[in-house]
Amino acid sequence: MENIDNKYEIHRIKTDPGQSMIRIDKFIFDRIENASRTKIQEACKEGYVTVNGTEVKSNYKVKPGDEIIIYSEYEPKNVDVIAEDIPINVVFEDDYFLIVNKEPEMVVHPSYGHYTGTLVNAIMHHLKDLPLFNTGEARPGLVHRIDKNTSGLLVIAKTEEALANISKQFFDRTTDRRYTALVWGTPAEAEGTIDAYVGRSPKNRKVMHVFPDGEHGKHAITHYKIIENLGYVTLIECKLETGRTHQIRVHMKYIGHPLFNDNEYGGDQILKGTRFTKYKQFVQNCFNIIPRQALHARTLAFDHPKTGERMSFTSELPDDFKKVIEKWRNYINTREIE
99, 108, 183, 225: most buried, per Cβ within 10 A? Predict the structure, then answer.
């Protein structure tokens, strides 16, 4: 861990050759989770942000190829990320990146309470011969992430150049990310857009909350459309325009349609349907089939970091998701016959 005058490096970002010139406080705010614009501006003022080795103010315009380092006065907890031979489902791989289909229950990167057994531990073993995965970085090659209990597609960069290029595409919102979700109830409109700021809940730091403006959250946009109405629940597709923590989960709760069996946003309760014991038992059986929020990162598309060719990947729904959909279909068909 680099230490300059009792300052400890906590983030290092290399910008892409095509990076547009924007203020560094905005650049960092959009790139780093849980960072407030005010805190970033304070860090710049106190000399905790450097570009190419020089301290910069918050109005510095980020340029292509800049190396940005953010420091803290506190030494971060030193956690060695150990390469582990854990099976992973690689959908695609070339010299620049790989696409992984993450199973539910697998944590993406080491964090408090999850220092081993994560996707990053597995990736470090899979790519142990590459320089990027021998730097001691806590999250090497990681462009984005999905929640532990969400399944589906993730891209991992294999070189620093690919990492900067694909990260910029995510930042510029030129990627295409679509999720399949099962939600309680049926949205009033067949298609819609949720445009609401998302940030940490002031009451519970483990969950996110929608705020009326950007003072306490980050701008977040989710487009959704109904795929199939299943009576008391609905299968929908969500297209992410931004990628905030728990974005789909908190946005769908915000419009009154929490994800099925989402225990952090109220979806693990019976929110629609009858009071009959038989129905309650049916829903409980469904919860047992998919013991997590019903959310799957189904498609991912972006431009190849070397050739510029548009790359698109699709992942089938996992078995637990398929089974719970089929169970709801059978329930609705049987009810209609009766």
Answer: 183
If one counts every other C-beta atom within 10 angstroms of the C-beta of residue 191, the result is 11
Exposure of 325 by Cβ count < 10 A (0-12 exposed, 13-18 middle, 19+ buried)?
buried
- Helix and strand numbers, DSSP H then E, in the chain: 7, 16
Amino acid at 192: G
pLDDT in tens, the chain (338 residues): 344 455 667 777 888 888 888 999 988 888 776 677 888 898 898 888 999 888 999 999 999 989 898 887 765 555 567 788 889 999 999 999 999 999 988 888 776 555 678 898 899 889 988 988 876 666 788 899 899 899 999 999 999 999 999 999 998 999 999 999 999 999 999 999 999 999 888 888 788 999 877 667 889 999 999 999 999 999 999 999 998 989 999 999 999 999 999 999 999 999 999 889 999 999 999 999 999 999 999 999 999 999 999 999 999 999 999 999 999 999 998 875 44
Residue pair 55/47 in contact (Cβ under 8 Å)? The answer is yes
Q: Are 3-72 and 176-337 in the same CATH fold?
A: no
Q: What is the CATH number of domain 90-172?
A: 3.30.2350.10
Catalytic residues: 147
The H-or-E segment that residue 105 falls in is none
CATH number for the region 176-337 comes to 3.30.2350.10
- Stated as kind and residue range, the H or E segment containing 183 is strand 176-184
Q: Which CATH superfamily is domain 3-72 in?
A: RNA-binding S4 domain (3.10.290.10)
Query: Domain residues of the chain, as ranges?
Result: 3-72, 90-172, 176-337
232 to 4, 125, 192, 274: CA distances (angstroms): 58, 44, 19, 9
